[in-house]
Amino acid sequence: MSSTLGSPISVRLPKDLRDRVAALARTTRRSQGDIVREVLERDLAALEWEQRISDRAAAHRAGRATAISAEEVDQQLGLEGDPAADAIDTIS
């Protein structure tokens, strides 16, 4: 968690979500701001990753990006052959 606090931000939350934040803050003896800040620090990276994936998909659909086949990826990684069959062979 970041030790330097910046500017405040105002967020409107549905009652059920606000109640959950308040309950966790009481249980952990922390401020509601601390709870919300920790949730953002934990989950913001996942939302940013999802947005990058969405942007890449849009670029691909618009013809601004190219893709390579799964077979080519396998070749580049040296994973030639049927991975499912190989996995089954190692289990048997």
Plain-language structure description:
- InterPro entries: Arc_rbn_hlx_hlx (IPR013321), CopG (IPR002145), Ribbon_hlx_hlx (IPR010985).
- Residues 9-44 form the Ribbon-helix-helix protein CopG domain.
- It holds the Pfam family RHH_1.
- This is Ribbon-helix-helix protein copg.
- It comes from Actinomyces glycerinitolerans.
- The chain has a domain at 15-77.
- The mean pLDDT is 86.
- Helix 1 (15-28) packs across helix 2.
- The protein is built from four helices and no strands.
- The protein starts with 14 loop residues before the first helix and ends with a helix.
- It has 92 residues and is mostly helical.
Helix content: 55-70%
Which regions have little confidence, pLDDT < 50, spanning 5+ residues? Answer: none
Q: How many helices in DSSP terms? A: 4
How much is the radius of gyration in Å? 23 Å
Q: Mind describing the biggest β-sheet?
A: none
Secondary-structure element order, as H and E?
A: HHHH
Mean pLDDT: 86
Distance between the termini: 47 Å
Question: What's the β-strand tally?
Answer: 0
The gross shape turns out to be elongated
Strand content: under 5%
Structural class: mainly alpha
